[in-house]
Amino acid sequence: MKIIDGTLISKKINEKLKIDIEALKKEGIIPGLGIILVGHDEASEIYVRNKLKLCDELGIHHELYRFSSDVREEEVIDTVKKLNQDTNIDGIIIQSPLPDSLCENKIMSYVDYHKDVDGFGIYSLGHLLANDEEILAATPYGILKMLEHENIVVDGKNIVVVGASIIVGRPLAALLLNRGATVTIAHSKTKNLKEITKMADILIVAIGKEKFITKDYIKDGAILIDVGINRVDGKVVGDIDFASVIDKCDAITPVPGGVGPMTITMLLYNVLEVAKKRRNK
Ligand code: NAD
């Protein structure tokens, strides 16, 4: 049984990113990221802090735009428009979730699709579905990089993705389909979930329910990717019950230290990719 070490894999990619960013800087281009954060969601504060920290480590310029939760939608949209025009900014993130008073889809629709480094915009998602990939959403991209690093082939495999959100399950399913996997997406209305998950050569879980997937949900020798981040008694645990499945699976990503660090790395990878395109302008 192998534990897939996301922290280690992300560190390797970060080292390469750092070298590429230094090279780009010698050409006078400093990659830049603009983040819009509304309100004081505890998890968002942590995610943004981690993103900014890695930006600093890699040498990416960053600007954080903070708004109180009663901000008017127009004010946020004006900031998006300003960042769209800013030639020092390559990527724009609208940190999710936004307060209910704001329409996330509407605000996202103003982000210049060239700068959609989260890959959640309609243009990026449309290209992904059309198997003409542009910017890939960071969490699915991170999972793909982990599988590649471990030489786990997806072509021809039965892959079950549990969770159908726009930030994980849906783009991930499309990305795997583009690479020749047979993909099943399960969600909260799926009947007989266990029967479906037991068919999976690779089972990927992103539902936000602590330790939900036990050994009864998997087949012998399955590869398990745990996307879940659940805070329980001051600890972070995944959607998969690690202790229950450990003797039955072939490989598993731990929580923490699995998909999480890969997500931030691939986000900044996207920022660098956009910045590189400035060279050709
Ligand atoms: P979401 O709430 O937007 O979507 C959850 C999905 O899970 C839905 O499609 C829902 O139908 C499905 N679901 C819920 N309960 C289910 C059940 N009992 N059986 C089957 N399906 C069920 O969540 P999200 O934003 O996709 O996040 C999911 C989890 O992944 C959360 O814990 C989140 O914190 C985590 N996450 C981690 C990373 C990372 O970098 N590691 C990135 C994004 C999200």
The second-level CATH architecture of the largest domain is 3-Layer(aba) Sandwich
Evaluate the radius of gyration.
19 Å
**CATH homologous superfamily identity of the largest domain:** NAD(P)-binding Rossmann-like Domain
> What class do helices, strands and sheet pairing give?
alpha/beta
Mean pLDDT across the residues is 97
What's the β-strand tally? 11
Bound molecules: nicotinamide-adenine-dinucleotide
Q: Quick one: biggest sheet?
A: 6 strands, parallel
CATH C-level class of the largest domain is: Alpha Beta
Measured distance between first and last alpha carbons: 48 Å
- Overall domain count: 2
**Taking strands numbered 1, 2, ... along the chain, how are they ordered across the largest sheet?**
1-11-8-7-5-6
| Contiguous runs where pLDDT drops below 50 for at least 5 residues | none
Percent helix range? 40-55%
The gross shape turns out to be globular
Which fold name is given in CATH as the topology of the largest domain?
Answer: Rossmann fold
Treating each run of at least 4 consecutive H or I residues as one helix, how many helices?
10
Strand content: 15-25%
